[in-house]
Amino acid sequence: MCHFDLQHFRELIDAAREGGYRFSLFNSEPQAGDLYLRHDVDLDLEAALELSALERELGVRATYFLMTTSVFYNLASPDGCRVLHQLAPTRTSTGVTAARTRGSRGASSSGCSS
């Protein structure tokens, strides 16, 4: 059985490079050999930062999708804003997954200042 941790992720990245893949973002047309890393951040913003730091160390590009409504984190909180600002300058792109919940009127902005 495969145990997934940051060391295993590093091994997967190395294997992809050895296989001739290049890391791309979703802002361009796919080309042969493109590999798209997409991370849906459902539970833990700190874990996303940790993975982003490893990707930065490895020179990897990835896309992070963050939820606008979650019982696990709040993008408008000081911690949420800090994570958004820390992800921004890395070799990542950040998307927002807008979730409508019962009684909501849609997604709102994060409330973070630039």
Short description:
With 114 residues, this protein is of the alpha/beta class.
Helix % is: 25-40%
Shape descriptor reads globular
Please state the average pLDDT score: 82
**Which structural class fits the helix and strand makeup?**
alpha/beta
- Low-confidence regions: 100-109
Order of helices and strands: HEEEHEHE
Quick one: biggest sheet? 3 strands, parallel
Rg from Cα: 16 Å
| Distinct helical segment count | 3
Q: Give a count of the beta strands, DSSP E runs of length 2 or more.
A: 5
Span between termini: 44 Å
Strand arrangement within the widest β-sheet reads 3-4-5
Q: Tell me the fraction of residues in β-strands, as a range.
A: 15-25%
Please characterize this protein's 3D structure.
α2 runs parallel beside α3. Helices cover 32% and strands 19% of the residues. It starts with 5 loop residues before the first helix and ends in a 17-residue tail after the last strand. β3 (38-41), α2 (45-58) and β4 form a beta-alpha-beta unit. Strands 3-4-5 form a three-stranded parallel β-sheet, with helices on one face. It has a two-stranded parallel ribbon with strand order 1-2. By secondary structure, it is α/β, with parallel strands linked by helices.
